[in-house]
Design a protein that fits this description.
single chain, alpha+beta, Beta-Lactamase, five-stranded antiparallel β-sheet, four-stranded mixed β-sheet, about 15% strand
Length: about 450
C-alpha cells in the first residue's frame, strides 16, 4: 500500500518520463520559448506524459511555422520583395502575403511614375495610398507648369530672335559698326562688317583690329548699366569713336551689343569752329570801328538783338547735341519703313485721344518681316479692334493655333511704338496713352 502511493505521487516515472503536471509545465515553457526565439526553442517530446505528446507534436509544428513566419517578415522588412512566399496555409500568413503583393504592385507603379506616367493610383494601403496619390498629382501639376514655362521661354526666345534679326537688318547696311560680344568668353560672336571688305572667317577679327583700332578696349568693357553712351579716343591715329552699349540675349547667350560710330570728323569740326570763334574775336581796329558804326545805325533791330542775346547767352545747348544718338535710332526706323513700304507693307502715324482706342488694319510687323525674309510672298492677316471707354477687361477666344498670340502681340507692339513717337503697322490708329504695358 505504501509503495503504490509513492508511485502515484512521484513526478517522474521509473523510465524517466514526466508526469502530466510536469509535462504541462514543460509545454508551457516550450510555447514561451517559441514566442521568444522560435529557432532556438527545444522540446524533448519523448519525455512527455502520454496524454501530452499529441499537444507537444502540435507545438513543434507551430514552432516550424513561427520560425518560417519570422524569417519571412524579416525579408519583407529589408525590402527583399523577391523572397518566396510561404507555402503553408495559415491565417498567420494572410496579412504578410497581402502586404507583400501590395508592395510589389507599389514598386511597379513607382517605376511607371519614374518613367513619366503620373496617372498611377494606389489603393488598399491607407495613408500610404493617400501620400502616393498626392505625390503623383503634384508631379503631374509640376510637369504641366514646366511645360508652360518651356513654351513661354520658347516664345520669348522667338521674339528675341525676331527683334535681333530686325536690329541686324536695320544696321547691316549702315556705316556704324555693330559688335556682339559674349559676356563670359569676351569673344565677338557677330559683326555687321563680317562680309564686307576682306574679313572672312577666322581672319575677320584680325582685319577688324586694323579697321577698328579700339576693338580691344571694347572687349574689355564691363557692363555696369543697362544702357550707356560713351566715347573712346585712339591717340595714335587721332580717331574718336562714340559707342552705344546695351545687353542682349544672343542665341541664348548673355551678350552685349556695341554700336560704334566714328565721330572723328564731328570732333574736328567742333574744334575748328571753336578756333574760328576765338579768331573772330581777334579783330582789327578798323573792324571795331565798322562794328560800332553798324551797331549805332541799327536802331530798334539793335535792341531786339540785345534782348535775344541776353536771354539766350547762358543757355545750354548740350542737351540738343546729346539727341544725336536718338536721331540715329529714328532715322534707322525711317529707313526701315521706306524699305518695307516698297514691298507692300503699310504704316501710319497714330493720333492720341482720351476717349477710346480704335485701330484699323492692324498687323504683326514681326510676323510680316519673318514672312518677307523667308521669301513666302504673303502678308500677315490684318485686324481691326477698338477699346471703348469704361471697359477694363477684354477676353480673346479662338481655336488653338488660330492667331490669338500674334494678334495680342500686334496690339502691344502698336501701343509701344506709338508711345515712342513712331509710326505703327496699321491703316489708321487712334490710341489712348497708357501708363503700363504688361506681358506674360
Amino acid at each position: 500500500m505504501d509503495d503504490l502511493e509513492l508511485k502515484e505521487n512521484s513526478p517522474q516515472g521509473q523510465d524517466g518520463a514526466l508526469g502530466v503536471e510536469e509535462s504541462c509545465k514543460e509545454l508551457t515553457r516550450y510555447l514561451e520559448d517559441i514566442l521568444r526565439d522560435a529557432p532556438h526553442a527545444r522540446l524533448e517530446a519523448e519525455r512527455l506524459a502520454e496524454p501530452c505528446r499529441e499537444l507537444g507534436a502540435a507545438l513543434e509544428s507551430f514552432r516550424a511555422m513561427a520560425e518560417e513566419l519570422a524569417d519571412y517578415s524579416v525579408q519583407l522588412s529589408k525590402g527583399r520583395l523577391d523572397a518566396e512566399q510561404p507555402q503553408r496555409d495559415s491565417c498567420l500568413y494572410v496579412g504578410l502575403k497581402n502586404l507583400h503583393g501590395n508592395l510589389k504592385q507599389l514598386v511597379n507603379q513607382a517605376g511607371q511614375v519614374a518613367a513619366g506616367d503620373y496617372s498611377q493610383q494606389v489603393s488598399q494601403l491607407g495613408t500610404l495610398s493617400d501620400a502616393f496619390n498626392a505625390m503623383t498629382r503634384q508631379l503631374d501639376d509640376r510637369r504641366a507648369q514646366l511645360r508652360a514655362e518651356v513654351r513661354r521661354a520658347q516664345n520669348r526666345a522667338d521674339i528675341i530672335e525676331s527683334y535681333t534679326e530686325m536690329l541686324v537688318d536695320l544696321l547691316g547696311q549702315r556705316e556704324e559698326w555693330m559688335l556682339v560680344v559674349d559676356e563670359e568668353t569676351r569673344e565677338i560672336v557677330y559683326c555687321n562688317k563680317r562680309h564686307q571688305g576682306n574679313g572672312q572667317g577666322g581672319d575677320h577679327c584680325e582685319t577688324c583690329k586694323h579697321r577698328l583700332p579700339i576693338q580691344s578696349k571694347i572687349l574689355e568693357w564691363e557692363r555696369t548699366e543697362r544702357y550707356k553712351i560713351w566715347e573712346l579716343e585712339e591717340h595714335n591715329r587721332g580717331g574718336c569713336y562714340r559707342i552705344i552699349s546695351f545687353p542682349i540675349e544672343w542665341k541664348e547667350r548673355p551678350s552685349c551689343v556695341h554700336i560704334v560710330m566714328d565721330v572723328t570728323a564731328e570732333k574736328m569740326n567742333a574744334r575748328h569752329l571753336s578756333d574760328d570763334v576765338y579768331q573772330d574775336m581777334d579783330i582789327t581796329c578798323l573792324d571795331q570801328k565798322l562794328m560800332e558804326y553798324t551797331y549805332a545805325q541799327a536802331g530798334e533791330t539793335r535792341n531786339e538783338i540785345d534782348i535775344i542775346y541776353e536771354k539766350y547767352r547762358d543757355f545750354d545747348f548740350f542737351p540738343f547735341i546729346s539727341l544725336a544718338d536718338e536721331l540715329v535710332f529714328y532715322l534707322s526706323c525711317i529707313h526701315f519703313r521706306r524699305e518695307y513700304e516698297k514691298e507692300g507693307f503699310y504704316f501710319t502715324m497714330p493720333c492720341f485721344g482720351t476717349e477710346r482706342t480704335c485701330v484699323k488694319g492692324a498687323y504683326d510687323m514681326l510676323l510680316g518681316v519673318n514672312l518677307f525674309k523667308n521669301g513666302e510672298g504673303c502678308r500677315p492677316v490684318s485686324n481691326d479692334y477698338a477699346f471703348h471707354r469704361g471697359a477694363s477687361w477684354f477676353i480673346l477666344t479662338g481655336a488653338n493655333q488660330g492667331g490669338k498670340t500674334t494678334f495680342i502681340r500686334s496690339i502691344g507692339l502698336i501701343q509701344c511704338l506709338a508711345q515712342t513717337g513712331m509710326f505703327v503697322p496699321a491703316e489708321e490708329a487712334i490710341l489712348k496713352a497708357v501708363g503700363h504695358i504688361h506681358t506674360f
